[in-house]
Structure prediction request, 796 residues.
Amino acid sequence: MSVYGTDKRHHTLTVLVENKSGVLARVAGLFSRRGYNIFSLAVAPSDDERFSRITIVVDVESSPLEQIIKQLDKLIPVVSITELDPEVSRERELLLATVEAGPDTRGQVIQLVGVFEGRIVDVGHDRLTVMLAGAPTKLDDFEDLIRSYGIVEMQRTGRVALPMLDRSGERPPLRAAGPTIASTTEKAG
Amino acid sequence: MELTGAQALIKSLEMQRVEVMFGLPGGAILPVYDPIIDSSIRHVLVRHEQGAGHMAEGYAQVTGRPGVAMVTSGPGATNIVTPLADAYMDSIPLVVVTGQVPTTAIGTDAFQESDITGITMGITKHNWLITDGADIPRVVAEAFHVATTGRPGPVLIDIPKDVANKPMEWYWPEPSDLDLPGYHPITEGDPRLVRAAAELLLAAERPVIYAGGGVLKARAAEVLRELAERTGIPVVTTLMARGSFPDSHPLCLGMPGMHGNYTAVTAMQRSDLLIALGSRFDDRVTGRVDAFAPDAKVIHVDIDPAEHNKVRRADVAIAGDCRLVIGDMLTALSDLGLPHSQATRGGSGGAPSDAVPGAPAITGSAAASFPRERLVPWRAQLSLWQQRYPLVYDQPPGSGALKPQFVLESLRDATPDDTIVASGVGQHQMFASQWWQFDYPYTWVNSGGLGTMGFAVPAAIGAKVGRPDKMVWAIDGDGCFQMTAQELVTASSERIPVKIAILNNAYLGMVRQWQEMFYGERYSEVYLSPDLPDYVGWAEAMGCVGLRVDSAEEVASAIDKANDVDDRPVVIDFRTDAFEKVFPMVAAGASNDDIIVDPSLTGGDEG
Prediction:
């Protein structure tokens, strides 16, 4: 029972925006007033201090992706929008969880963290706080497995993504040429 | 040169060649009002901030220049929210300046503080809160650029009192100094798409040009006319596009939509090609979307790409300025062999008789089999509908109830052809759009998308300020008039001689019509009384000439009297028939196929 995963309904948009106050409110406000659903959202400064990058996973069942992109594009502080299809992008997310880990189960939890290549970041008498970074589906699997030990608290960051590198040496075609390819919408309008 | 922020703001507006602004001062905007005394900019002091916003809209609609309004923080700012929303819906360029509490007080719930940039985020094209006086000239230049380019719209500049008071070093930015890395409005259409559109156009048998407000925004009325005349394709003009194509033109079918005429509505329904120019498939035009123009392919030209495929999927979607794209389309049509032709210009009656081939056919091109002969059956069908389902009303002679349509026809015939007409929202608006003859662009000022009651009086005042050379009439309802009538005090004191025709049926007429038709004649909270207020007395108290008309025979003389007044506003209280309804009508959510025409045309009795 994957909550995240590579559901076809979910598309990832990475939105380069001007690093000015109120920009996140403009983006979030647009989604709420036009009835678009945000599945997850992550914001951080980009490598250029004038801009920030917002990674939004949108639910394209609620509204057509074309409308979401075009309306976002109309916001003045939005500089560019890149749509990342899960099949041609590298998506990562971070999970932090505090898990029940009494003497009987502690070994099993530690083992599970090891199998998933996670880390233990804090240790209590009968609880552990663990960290796992990885593809959202992997986090889903991990979350399912540790649930039986008892999750006290958990946070996930929402995903960030970059396009998969093209090893053929040719430029990837634009989205218009095929629906499964990542594309960048140059800002217009 | 060192200036205060306030001086820099006013000087920046002067640099933008602002001639007039509409506003009302208050605490937080006080510093900015001081340099107005020494400025070349005329300031019109309104009685309510909503009036300032609608005046700026009226001014912008008739001049094509951005309207400017200035108000104080808190309630001043929130009072101008409605005009901003109105301008956003109708793509009207406005620059609104609001005062704000000092930066140190922002967020403390200070006196007259409101988060106006937050409040107006969704109803402005963009807004700015200035926190550094050095930004003032650049932000003003950016604001005017954003408001007037691409799809026009309202913008707001919020200026805290301390920023207005502090000194700054004056400069004026070069275009390259504007800091808008994410704003690159499209103007030129993609030539391949334009060509594809031209080909579709030549292949169509039942084409209709669906002209919207974007035609006026792009100042494309002339090229639209050329397109229609060269192709012989009939034109419908939406509520926002009235006047963009002359109503008197034989190819003009008039207004489509919920209260559009039968031929305009049905032509779109039966069409095999809709050429949507600066129109946005608004729900009032389409009716039930899945039943709208089922057989039509769609060419959609709009400067805002987000309008493409929003409501109706387009076969050819062209992002670009309507004037440029239509111009390119004409070139593409020539390339495809369509002859230049004057055949339809000034012809008579929309009958196929004026569909004379204008030039010998050119063989071997897409245009060879086009156009006029092919459109003959279509044009014949349209004229049959026009004859069968005209707009009708029945004005009984003598002292019978005065029909609003009769008032409008009388007013239309007694005023210059290029009279500017502003209207509020409701039955009177639909009657005005139906019965006026709009032959010139920028002569119809109304609230289309938002449907703002009370728009007419202040919008007419703003229009008259922008075009003092033209006669300006507001057509208003009694409900609407009561919402913003106080601006007639502004008009009187500023000597702005607008004329107001109140179609006083003592009801919120459009709501009453719906309650009669769809709520079993259960009238809930729609009665207003014809005599309370006393409109003539009220008009006179506001420094206007007040007149009252009770019957058809008094109409002409009252209008003549009003037309003779040019030193103050005039208000005529026309006592009209409360039972008159607007027809045709497509009920909300119904298909345009189910258009309800005037009962007299179907042999039924009117209620």
